[in-house]
From TrEMBL:
This protein's name: Benzoyl-CoA 2,3-epoxidase subunit BoxB
Taxonomic source organism: Streptomyces endophyticus
Signal peptide annotation: none
Enzyme Commission numbers on file: 1.14.13.208
InterPro entries in alphabetical order: Aromatic_CoA_ox/epox, Benzoyl_CoA_Oase_BoxB, Ferritin-like_SF, RNR-like
Tree of life domain: Bacteria
Length: 472
């Protein structure tokens, strides 16, 4: 494969598409379908152009360029990270063997399924966020929304390339289906539940990019370890772009919390609704919802499928090569979260079947970093209240805890007690209506909505006042 990017092709790429005319024609025939999907299911706010980062290469320096681009003309391309010479499989039954450059027949169906599920999440989030531009709190935030959207579109391209290049007719059919499913559709919904939820407001958007995109980071991290080298290299480059999406969520919630703290201190009140702010109680409810929904994306606490993926070399652990074990796990055990005689506890299982729990725990540790940031802002403002992550069993629909209801502290509740109290812990229609009432667009350079603080700095050295988006 080529190491340098060909940016003159109809589809920018560093995989030497011009050397495989059949594949090039197949992807060029898929491109109009993608643009039709973008036109019908992508951002609805009309724009002239947007100050966007466009991937142009994969090197450490100069991998992207910034400039005003008409979104429909964005150069969605196919980029794989640079190959590692003589890369060896790091885990499972094939540990130590050369990484695969083609799909082994015995693993074809499983690999295809993993790629389809990952690919399905990318356009789903664009669909969920398509109407947010109309209520953006600033041009800076509007630009960040559109940056996330176009990069999710590029991540779809990344998965579609793998399906076309390595999975024949079935892969091409799956690539078409990625454009035919739609978030929230009754007839043809997206595969994973969290990607059929609404993202109706900017507080939800920031929570999504903090919690749900962070799940994406960890899923991509397991695919980066894959023995199938093209998938590994694809996931590695996607992680580079994914970092900005989580930055949008982290700093977005920073700025909401900061503005709330300013209003609380300025007016000496916990009730900032009269001042156009978002109360800490409501912020906490949104954290509870988005965190618990994102925990479900990791699947059940135990999984023989994931055990087989690991043993086969399809999907590794987060940070596989830093682990201090034999990287096969055949004789190891692991404690997973479980219901034990109706109470929340742990049980011992074979380490291989507990890999979902292992990954979820890595994610939970990472999620706590945001809580630390937001609570420092409250502390610096002299506010005693602290935000928290609810218990792992709270509001779960998948896995061991789907059968019970708990309070945010993990106390197991009766069904009646849950119904009586859930409005104190999860967003109610009153909460959602209030948040929607704040969502009035601010599309003038240098101005910002009253419920969120401005960023500390702009994008790519530009000031906050920069005209990041030119509207039609």
């Amino acid at each position: 494969m080529a190491l340098t990017a060909d940016y003159t092709d109809k589809i920018p790429n560093n995989v030497a598409l011009h050397e495989d005319r059949r594949l090039q024609r197949a992807l060029e025939s898929w491109q109009p379908n993608f643009l039709t999907w973008w036109d019908s299911m992508g951002p609805t706010l009309p724009t002239e152009d947007v100050y966007l980062r466009t991937a142009v290469d994969v090197g450490r320096d100069g991998w992207a360029r910034f400039g005003h681009v008409a979104m429909r003309d964005y150069r969605w391309g196919v980029f794989l990270a640079e190959p590692k010479p003589d890369r060896r499989i790091a885990f499972g039954a094939h540990r130590g063997e050369p990484a695969w450059q083609q799909v082994p027949g015995e693993y074809r169906a499983d690999l295809q399924r993993l790629i389809v599920i990952q690919g399905d999440t990318e356009p789903a989030s664009v669909e969920q966020q398509r109407n947010l531009g109309a209520t953006a709190p600033s041009l800076y935030d509007l630009r960040n929304l559109f940056q996330v959207n176009v990069e999710e579109g590029r991540h779809l391209w990344a998965m579609v390339y793998l399906l076309h290049a390595y999975f024949g007719r079935e892969g091409r059919e799956e690539a078409e289906e990625l454009l035919h499913r739609n978030s929230g559709s009754d007839e043809s919904p997206r595969i994973l539940g969290a990607f059929n939820e609404e993202t109706p407001d900017w507080l939800s958007f920031f929570m999504f990019t903090y919690f749900t995109d962070r799940d994406g980071k960890y899923q991509l991290g397991t695919l980066k370890e894959s023995a199938f080298d093209p998938l590994s290299r694809t996931a590695e480059f996607m992680l580079k772009e994914e970092a900005h999406h989580m930055f949008v969520g982290t700093t977005g919630i920073d700025r909401v919390v900061l503005r709330t703290a300013e209003l609380m201190r300025e007016h000496d009140t916990d009730d900032v609704t009269a001042r156009g702010g978002i109360p800490l109680d409501v912020i906490q409810k949104y954290i509870n919802f988005h965190y618990s929904v994102s925990l479900d994306l990791f699947g059940s606490e135990t999984s023989t499928n994931v055990a087989n993926y690991y043993t086969s070399g399809l999907k590794g652990r987060w940070g596989e090569e830093r682990r201090k074990d034999d990287h096969t796990l055949t004789d190891d055990s692991f404690l997973v979260d479980a219901l034990v005689e109706g109470a929340i506890g742990q049980r011992e299982v074979a380490a291989l079947v507990g890999l979902n729990t292992d990954l979820r725990r890595e994610y939970i540790r990472d999620c706590h970093t945001g809580l630390g940031r937001w609570n420092r802002l409250l502390e610096e403002a002299g506010i005693e209240r602290r935000l928290y992550l609810p218990h792992i069993a709270f509001n779960r629909q998948v896995g061991a805890f789907a059968a019970v209801e708990t309070a945010p502290d993990g106390t197991v509740l009766t069904a009646d007690a849950w119904e009586d109290s859930k409005g104190a812990w999860l967003p109610t229609e009153v909460d959602k209506t209030y948040i929607r009432s704040l969502m009035r667009p601010v599309h003038e350079p240098g101005r910002i909505a009253s419920w969120i603080a401005p960023p500390r700095q702009g994008i790519n050295g530009k000031p906050f006042e920069y005209e990041y988006v030119h509207l039609v």
